[in-house]
């Protein structure tokens, strides 16, 4: 599976995905590309999933007709 990792996630995440072909937005030289254009570019380049921490992405973009899967990472912190 071909994965694209957003700038909002650490680049080293690729090391933890050895069973996937994972690229970062920076590696593809798409750093300045806005989210909507980035998703279209990724899909046309054959990426099957987009990994991000941008929790508002689904509200900001019209994903109708898009076949790329979006995985949103969220972290919560607890204090003792």
Characterize the structure shown.
This protein has 80 residues and is an alpha/beta fold. It has one domain. 18% of the residues lie in helices and 20% in strands. It has 2 helices and 4 strands, in the order E-E-H-E-H-E. It has a 4-stranded parallel β-sheet, with helices on one face. Strand 3, helix 2 and strand 4 form a beta-alpha-beta unit. The protein is globular. The termini are far apart. The model has no long low-confidence stretch (mean pLDDT 89).
Gist?
The chain is of the alpha/beta class.
Task: Map the helices and strands.
Blueprint lengths: L1 E4 L15 E4 L10 H10 L4 E4 L4 H4 L8 E4 L8
Parallel strand pairs: 1-2, 1-3, 3-4
Q: What are the defining features of this structure?
A:
single chain; about 80 residues; alpha/beta; 4-stranded parallel sheet
């Amino acid at each position: 599976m071909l994965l694209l990792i957003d700038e909002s996630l650490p680049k080293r995440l690729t090391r933890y995905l050895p069973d996937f072909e994972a690229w970062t937005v920076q590696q593809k030289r798409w750093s300045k590309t806005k989210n909507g254009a980035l998703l279209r570019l990724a899909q046309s380049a054959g990426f099957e999933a987009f990994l991000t921490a941008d929790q508002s992405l689904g509200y900001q973009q019209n994903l109708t007709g898009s076949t790329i899967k979006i995985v949103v990472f969220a972290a919560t912190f607890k204090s003792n």
